[in-house]
Design a protein that fits this description.
It is globular and about 50 Å long. Helix content is 24%, strand content 10%. The chain is an alpha/beta fold and 320 residues long.
């Protein structure tokens, strides 16, 4: 979800969570997620209309933009560090036979949206041999928000995009990585929480302006922030036993971004029951979480701004 920086902590401990170190390395949060430089969103476009529309054959394709929350493997094919890759064990362990590059134990939000829309898994744009996009394509890239070739999101409308699905920024200040550096009590990092709220309000205002300005512009704005915060505060309500500590990583709350042992820190632990956890690694969610989120985005209005013109993703797919 952005670039990580290796820094010197003061009294952060030696990485094993027991607090017995001082002035030793810790992992800092990805800055793009904190500042909102790379807001995550997916787009539903009628670029290749199909001749026969039905519930099994929706009238639009799925084009996905975003960062590591939606990256299904584009970063496998670019020259980057393992900080921005997830094509190694135990990533994908809960669904795929081999790691695919998804930053989770299994499928992501976009995978579940595709399934709900009766579409196949949408492939990464950089996948070798991929030459046709009959159902759409995934441009999301961990660390960058979108591939350079597709960064001009404003051009999507000009070439035919009319239906867009957006997620606002999650409460990143409450992720295990941020709790690790916040304070001894493991509270959410308050400054980051404040910035995130401001950013999300700006997204809401901007989408309302676009809807008023662009003829035919339809959107879904899912309140990713409130939805995931509810799970953090009331985990048992959503079927979790642990919402502070990640399943995979090391250090307090497993907040060090070391899952898989291929990054700066090699040590990592893997929990016994993945589905007990809200977070998969120090910054990303489990497949179970993404499944719940996708279903809410699809047809649940609890986390939409429906009164201000926001649709569900299901409505966008079948809206004429």
């Amino acid at each position: 979800m952005g670039k990580w920086r290796w820094v010197k902590g003061e009294g952060e401990g030696d990485g094993d969570g027991d607090g017995d170190g001082a002035g030793v390395p810790c992992i800092e949060c990805p800055m793009s997620s904190v500042t909102g430089v790379s807001p995550v969103f997916c787009s539903c476009l009628n670029l290749s209309p199909q001749n026969h529309h039905s519930k099994q054959n929706p009238p639009c394709n799925l084009f996905i933009f975003g960062d590591s929350i939606l990256d299904v493997g584009n970063n496998n094919y670019i020259n980057t560090s393992t900080l921005d890759q997830a094509n190694f064990y135990p990533y994908g362990i809960n669904f795929f036979p081999v790691p695919t590059g998804r930053f989770s134990d299994g499928r992501l939000i976009s995978d579940f949206i595709a399934k709900l829309a009766h579409l196949p898994l949408i492939p990464p744009y950089l996948q070798p041999g991929l030459h046709q996009f009959s159902h759409g394509v995934n441009f999301a890239s961990a660390g960058g928000g979108a591939l350079v070739e597709t960064f001009q999101h404003s051009e999507i409308y000009k070439i035919g995009g009319r239906k867009f699905g957006f997620l606002n920024v999650l409460p990143i200040g409450c992720a295990p990585a941020l709790r690790l550096i916040a304070n001894a009590n493991g509270e959410c990092l308050k400054d980051v929480v404040t910035y995130t709220r401001l950013h999300n309000e700006a997204i809401f205002q901007a989408l309302q302006q676009l809807a008023n300005k662009l003829p035919g512009f339809k959107y879904s704005l899912y309140d990713f922030y409130t939805s995931t915060l509810q799970r953090i505060k009331h985990p048992s309500k959503y079927g979790y036993k642990e919402a502070k500590t990640a399943c995979c990583g090391t250090g307090k709350y497993r907040g060090v971004f070391s899952c898989g042992g291929k990054r700066i820190v090699k040590q990592y632990e893997l929990c016994k029951n993945i589905d007990d956890h809200l977070f998969w690694d120090s910054i990303h969610f489990t497949q179970k979480t993404y499944f719940q989120i996708a279903n809410e985005m699809w047809n649940n209005t609890n986390y939409l701004h429906a009164e201000h013109g926001s649709y569900t993703i299901k409505e966008l797919f079948y809206l004429r």
